[in-house]
Amino acid sequence: MNELEAIKDHHDSLPGPAPEVTARARVLLAEEAGAEPRRLTVAAPGRGRPARSPRRPLRVSRLAMRAGAAVGLAAAVTAGLVLVRGGHDSAPFGTPPASAAELLRHAASVAAREDVRPGPGQFVYVDQRNVMFVSSPEGAYTQEWRREVWMPAGDPGKALTRSTYGRTRLTGGGGPAHVQPPGTVEYQRAGQCHESPLALLSQATDLPADPDQALARIRRDAEVFVRSDQRRRGETDLGQSEIDMRVEKIVGGLLLKLAENPLTPSQTRATVFGALSKMPSATVVPDLTDPAGRHGVGASLRYESPGTWERGELIFEPVTYRFLGYRSWIGRQEGGQVKEIPSSSMAVMAVKVVGSMPKVPKDAAKPMFC
């Protein structure tokens, strides 16, 4: 029996790791492949550092070092060891976050490494599953649809989105007058409609990388807007508490929009997650479900309005802290009570680089909500 067969037999005889350990290990392995190997620490008491072979050259290629880290990580996971990630917010695999701040800091670290950059002739492809909740005098209903986005490298003006509408479900009142039948496919080019799913918020392009500085700028800009809007409305008796409430609503709403927009650059999203971790109203929700039916851990942010409130929930994979999706809620006064109703939800199914995008059919109609 050669050495490889002996290793395989030993591997097969060991108990398998828990699913959450394996999932977390895959993510950290991918992260560490692009980082310095010394950032990965294996907590294995009683084992010293192996001596370097005198015949091996002192200079080791980065590729070899990464391969060594990969082998060590795989062996440690298989053996059921506890692996600890070095640096800030270190925690064992599978450890539930103690707070929303901790969860969002982990999510920021993961987002910073998910940098998807297309090359010449390539496209960023985003696949989303959405649910829209509508309440109107005509009735209340929900509609599901799939949204696919192709964003070419260096030329967002040629981006394309394709929406495929799914089922509609009535939740109250009569049938809606304006709704797309299931199976309807719409194409929308960048700039074709005023409200565009291809639009990227202007704040995403020049936001400071430091979360504290980013939050300070957003809050400062929000206060300037609220003060200006106060003068425009002639609201001379507006108290400081009301001004603060309006400012926090703008801050929270903008951060959530930047976080859930799949076209937000990964580094900016990492900054946004870091800024959200500093919001005092953020709370952790142990179990949330996105529109795709995936369970995750969530960070909930609530901001007040006169007589009502709004709440956004960011959903993350519970072990890897990868961003899964978003849900939003609105509180409304009904019959003397504030009732919570859903507003929208979205699941990110895929974000990757592709080599082509579909052609728009010549008979494609203008989008209904355009």
What can you see in these coordinates?
InterPro entries: CU044_5270-like. By secondary structure, the protein is an alpha+beta fold. Helix content is 30%, strand content 30%. The chain has 7 helices and 11 strands. The longest helix is centred in the middle third of the chain and has 23 residues, at 211-233. The chain starts with a helix and ends in a 16-residue tail after the last strand.
Number of DSSP helices? 7
Biggest β-sheet: count, sense, barrel?
9 strands, antiparallel
Helix vs. strand class: alpha+beta
Q: Poorly predicted ranges (pLDDT <50, ≥5 residues)?
A: 6-93
Q: Give the percentage of residues in beta strands.
A: 25-35%
Straight-line distance between termini:
69 Å
Q: Would you list the SSEs in sequence order as H and E?
A: HHEHEHEEEEHHHEEEEE
Considering the chains and any ligands shown, give keywords for the structure.
370 residues; alpha+beta; nine-stranded antiparallel beta sheet; two-stranded antiparallel ribbon; 7 helices; 30% helix; 30% strand
Layout: helices, strands, pairs:
Elements: H1 3-13, H2 19-33, E1 40-43, H3 62-78, E2 82-85, H4 100-113, E3 123-136, E4 139-152, E5 160-173, E6 185-189, H5 211-233, H6 240-260, H7 266-276, E7 283-289, E8 295-305, E9 308-316, E10 323-334, E11 337-354
Antiparallel strand pairs: 1-2, 3-4, 3-11, 4-5, 5-6, 7-8, 8-9, 9-10, 10-11
Helix pairs in contact: 2-3, 4-7, 5-6, 5-7, 6-7
